[in-house]
Amino acid sequence: NMEHGDLIERVETHILRIPTIRAHKLSVATMQEQRLVIVKITTAGGVVGYGEATTIGGLSYTDESPDSIQLTIDLYFADLIKGCSATRPAEIMAKIRKMAVGNYFAKNAVETALFDILGKLAGLPVSELLGGRVRNTLPVAWTLASGDTAKDIEEGRAMLKARRHNIFKLKIGARAWREDVAHVAAIADAFRGEADIRVDVNQAWDMTTARCAIPALAEAGVTLIEQPMKGTNLDGARELRSISSAAIMADEALRGGVSPALEIIKARAADVLSLKIAQAGGLFSCRDVAQMGLAAGLELYGGTMLEGSVGTTATAQMLVTLPQITWGTELFGPLLLTEDILTKPLTYKDFALVVPDGPGLGVEINDAALGAFTEGKG
Ligand code: MUC
Ligand code: MG
User: Fold this and answer.
1) pLDDT of amino acid 165
2) 302 CB less than 6 Å from ligand 1?
3) For a Cys staple, 286 with which of 280, 310, 358, 364, CB 3.0–4.6 Å?
């Protein structure tokens, strides 16, 4: 049933520039702000859907930047999308995937906006379009990444006291491994019995460094080690698994979704998969990655590209449909930013995110804020 009102009429993109609450230090970049790409798709009947594509540190995390994502959508995807029926996201995404290789972040933003519209048309949350929920809340980790051990401990204390987070991820890999281990051990000691401590190396180590650092980190109490070496080094990751009592998680290795997931599974190169809708190229592909992981006996984790509220909610809508998310999530992106574009911010309480249950993504965008934070107009 092709209603004229369901045809897509407009596709717009905005790059928003929003400062972070403090410097956020990763091995690949130090962030003082985040640049979010927001896609807004409108049907002839006036239904509006939003999607987000956000990466970290310009081109330092992956080969899509906010600017390339915007250009890809404006110049290549928009004309394919316009005139299509909004009731068929799968058909639109198939057209886009046939025309464009890679560009996973841009594809994800478009698919999210299409699902937001479809949910609004159906009067159902996106989670219900993906099969329905098995939970309404998700545990959320916080990243301690000020670059200063004492400040990180103070920040962690405040998070525990506010009952906002009791899982902390530490960003390491920029310094000599012995300094990193000392930093992590001090924080693990401070929170022993109160919080789960994990690390993310963002691909910084070679095998020699990883072989020294990983047993020391496990000894300090670290439970999960994320992407210690290059994502392409699957043989190395398998070797690290065999010497580590802490779980090894694939993150950057999963850029591209189901294909790299298959290689990781074949190579037995991870204990845990970090599910990111941006790296998978969409909600559906990311759910496929999750199912592949479960079938192979791997554990799951809900990852973030430090997206704002739109991307965070989209990920959450997918994650609540999964039977098991053993390691929780890190869906704290909106809390790292000084400003939000929602009329009503997301609810974080009791160490968890409450996933919106209204139609579509279940969030309402403040168009004035969207305009105000758009680059060049602020
Ligand atoms: C990453 O590599 O996982 C997620 C949390 C955080 O602090 O940085 C990110 C990206
Ligand atoms: Mg990571």
Assistant:
1) 98
2) no
3) 280
Check pLDDT > 90 for residue 1.
Answer: no
State the virtual CA torsion across 153, 156, 162, 163 in degrees, nearest 10: -140
- 184 and 243 part of one domain: yes
- The stretch 14-43 carries a mean pLDDT of 96
Query: Structurally, how many domains does the chain consist of?
Result: 2
In a domain, residue 378? The reply is no
Whether residue 178 sits in one domain with residue 230? yes
Neighbours of ion ligand 2 (CB under 5 A): 200, 226, 251
Domain assignment present for 359: no
* In-domain check, residue 218: yes
pLDDT at 376: 79
Q: What is the mean pLDDT of residues 91-97?
A: 98
Element (H or E) spanning 213, and its range? helix 207-220
CA distance 53 to 307: 8
Find, among 270, 268, 240, 267, the residue nearest to 252 by Cα.
Answer: 270
Instruction: Reduce the secondary structure of 74-101 to three states and give it as a string.
Output: HHHHHHHHCCCECCCHHHHHHHHHHHCC
Mean pLDDT, range 170-183, rounded to an integer:
98
Q: How many residues does the chain have?
A: 378
- Write down the number of H helices and E strands in the chain: 15, 13
For residue 378, the model assigns a pLDDT of 43
Q: Which two tokens stand for residue 183?
A: 């930093």
Cα of 304 vs centre of ligand 1, distance in Å, is: 6
Ligand 1 pocket residue status of 307, Cβ below 6 Å: no
Q: 116-135, pLDDT tens digit by residue? A: 999 999 999 999 999 999 99
What pLDDT, on a 0 to 100 scale, did the predictor assign at position 240? 98
Contact 366, 6 (CB under 8 A): no
Q: Report residue 377's pLDDT band, with 50, 70 and 90 as the boundaries.
A: low
Section 256-260 average pLDDT: 98
CB 54 within 8 A of CB 334: no
Asked whether residue 249 is domain-assigned, the answer is yes
The finding on whether 251 has its CB within 6 A of some atom of ligand 1 is yes
Of 205, 216, 321, residue with least CA distance to 252: 205
Question: Cα(243)–Cα(179) distance, rounded to whole angstroms?
Answer: 21
